[in-house]
Amino acid sequence: VTNYGNVWKSTDGCGNWEVINTSFGIMRGVYFTSPLTGWIITGSEVLNTEDGGVNWTSVFNVGSELLADIIFVNDSTGFVCWRNQGNSKIFRTTDSGNNWSTVFDSSSNALLKIGFINENLIWAVNYNRAVYTTTDLGDSWQTIYWQPNWVGFYSFDVQMLNEMNGIIVQGEDNIVLDGYLEFTSDGGNSWNQYGNGKRFTFGISDIYFPSIDKGWVSTNNTEIFYTSDMGVSWDTLQNYNSLPNSIDKFSFIDDQKAWAITYNEILKTDDGWNTFSICGIITDVNDTETEPVDYKLFQNYPNPFNPTTKIKFQIPSPYQGEGQRVRLTTLKVFDILGNEVATLVDEVKDAGTYEVEFNATGLPSGVYFYRLKAGSFSKTRKMVLLR
Predict the structure, then answer these.
(1) Cis (ω within 30 of 0) for the bond into 302?
(2) Parallel, antiparallel, or unpaired for β 215-219 and 67-72?
(3) Rg for the chain (alpha carbons), in Å?
(4) Residue 112's pLDDT band (cuts 50, 70, 90)
(5) How far, in Å, CA of 42 to CA of 104, rounded?
(6) Which residue pairs, CB below 8 angstroms and at least 24 apart, start in 137-145?
(7) Of 78, 106, 320, 375, which has the highest C-beta tally within 10 A?
(8) pTM of the shown model
(9) Residue 8: which H helix or E strand, with range?
(10) Coil vs helix vs strand at 346
(11) Cα separation of 241 and 239, whole Å?
């Protein structure tokens, strides 16, 4: 699903794609319980299909652009996260999406991810390093981990492997946005740094761990790392010279077969990301949206470039609870070692779409990264200077 309301569907393993146009706009998540039955969340709505994505119907509208994730633990019971900065909520349906009710309502920071092991063990994580769990299908929730005073750190994903073991993804807001992993072996009551505290430069974009000792990590540095010894050692399977863009999302069938999406490519591997192919280009990317409803950092153009290129980004109207309409925005350029080489934007920006030029005169050829930060949003992309 795309930021422009289109659903891409393949029935031959990524060779050919059917594009299904909808009028619902930005789509933030998708979850299917069968090849025909599935759900999508936009910023404010839950959509349902019963014919494999050909037709979609809105079944729930929260009225504001705050939905972040959706899961179904069985054919009839599902949950969605509401990510307001000062008032997190989880909504539940027990009748296959026909009716929804609030089962979690807290003043904690934005809820970003929800997952489950089985119907009796459901997890949620929020931006402020808190982990919640329910063992009664959402009727009651317990806070099992909370570190609200770790300034500069935030959580944005959790993957529980079984009732005792799990991985949480952390970000660290320093000069360059790094990412790292923590793990639990006691059901989430305590967490320790995974893999000797390895930092992933420019942050983690997604993970897949089939077991506590083995997993894949993709980064905003356009790299894929693999470990089979609980992070004692990491193999770099791909790097910035091979991946077209950083991976936004993994989808694994097993340890060998998987797909991934970047900004506008669909990738496929049959050997655990030792090699990969591009099996689709998302051609419905449309950079002309007139009323921004979400943060976006677009790919620079041209790319590769010499010596100038243009970078486009957009700042939306504030989400409920964000406060003022304006927010401090920075756009910086870094070299491959993480050294800052240019500051293109450093000022308060109102909602809108902006474009700036980067002039690399005097810089050597190579790979560079540009990072947009605005409010709690942060995104990094790659570009290539080729003389």
Answers:
(1) yes
(2) unpaired
(3) 20
(4) confident
(5) 20
(6) 137/73, 137/77, 137/92, 137/94, 138/79, 138/90, 138/92, 138/103, 138/104, 139/103, 141/90, 141/103, 141/104, 144/187, 144/188, 144/189, 145/184, 145/188, 145/189, 145/190, 145/191
(7) 78
(8) 0.82
(9) strand 6-9
(10) strand
(11) 5
Containing 338, the helix (H) or strand (E) segment is: none
Q: State how far the Cα of 328 lies from the Cα of 367, in Å rounded to an integer.
A: 27
Mind listing the pLDDT tens digit for each residue in 259-314? 999 888 999 999 999 999 999 988 765 444 445 567 888 888 888 899 999 999 98
pLDDT band at 109 (very low <50, low <70, confident <90, very high): low
* Chain mean pLDDT for the chain: 86
Residue 244 token pair: 């077209």
User: Of all helices (H) and strands (E), which one includes residue 290?
Assistant: none
Query: Residue 57 in contact with residue 96, Cβ under 8 Å?
Result: no
User: Can you read off the two tokens belonging to residue 237?
Assistant: 């399977």
| Beta carbons of 80 and 46 less than 8 angstroms apart | yes
Whether the Cβ atoms of residue 343 and residue 334 lie closer than 8 Å to each other:
no
Phi/psi for 236 (5° steps) reads -85, 105
Single-letter amino acid code for the residue at 263: Y
Structure tokens at 171: 């970000």
- Residue showing tokens 């927010």: 327
